[in-house]
Amino acid sequence: MNAIFDIVAAVQERSGGCLCGRIRFTAKGKAVYPHTCSCSHCKKLGGGPMMWWAGFALDDVTWTNGIEPTWFETFEGEAQRGFCPHCGSRLAAIDRDVPELGIVVTALDDTSGADLVPVNQSFRDDAVHWLSQVPNTQTSPVG
């Protein structure tokens, strides 16, 4: 195999999982709308000044250990968040108005893909003042 083929293959399928390793997944294809979010919900959920998200088609994400995240409804009828009930790692999001499954990028084993570089930061007005904001290179559908 040549280096170009290896790079293309790596972008086509990625692996990831929770901290304890009980939940593992693969995500195929190019990431959709990678971004950070500074809403108060994401800050509390992630335990930091922002969370880093990327979307993948629902059919392109497979939970590989036979264990899916535990889902909790964060906003009734609007959004669900998935986490590992054993270690608490945040893994994914389902939002009613977004066709892709949101994956917490830091749950991926390799976060170096060019298609994972954030193109925007949602809820800029809620961002901490001491951290530079992500440049807006693509308009956010929310916040």
Describe this structure as you would to a colleague.
- It is a single chain.
- This protein has 143 residues and is mainly beta.
- The chain has helices spanning 3-12, 40-46; strands at residues 13-17, 24-28, 32-37, 51-57, 61-63, 70-75, 79-83, 90-95, 100-104, 121-122.
- Strands 6-7-8-9-4-3-10 form a 7-stranded mixed sheet. Strands 1-2-5 form a 3-stranded antiparallel sheet.
- The longest helix has 10 residues, at 3-12.
- The mean pLDDT is 88.
Give keywords.
143 residues, mainly beta, seven-stranded mixed β-sheet, three-stranded antiparallel β-sheet, 35% strand, globular
Shape: globular
The tally of beta strands, per DSSP, is 10
Rg (C-alpha, Å): 15 Å
- H-E order: HEEEHEEEEEEE
Structural class: mainly beta
The main sheet orders its strands as: 6-7-8-9-4-3-10
What is the mean pLDDT? Answer: 88
Distinct helical segment count? 2
Give the terminus-to-terminus CA distance.
44 Å
Structure in a nutshell:
This protein has 143 residues and is mainly β. Helices cover 12% and strands 35% of the residues.
Layout: helices, strands, pairs:
Elements: H1 3-12, E1 13-17, E2 24-28, E3 32-37, H2 40-46, E4 51-57, E5 61-63, E6 70-75, E7 79-83, E8 90-95, E9 100-104, E10 121-122
Parallel strand pairs: 3-10
Antiparallel strand pairs: 1-2, 2-5, 3-4, 4-9, 6-7, 7-8, 8-9
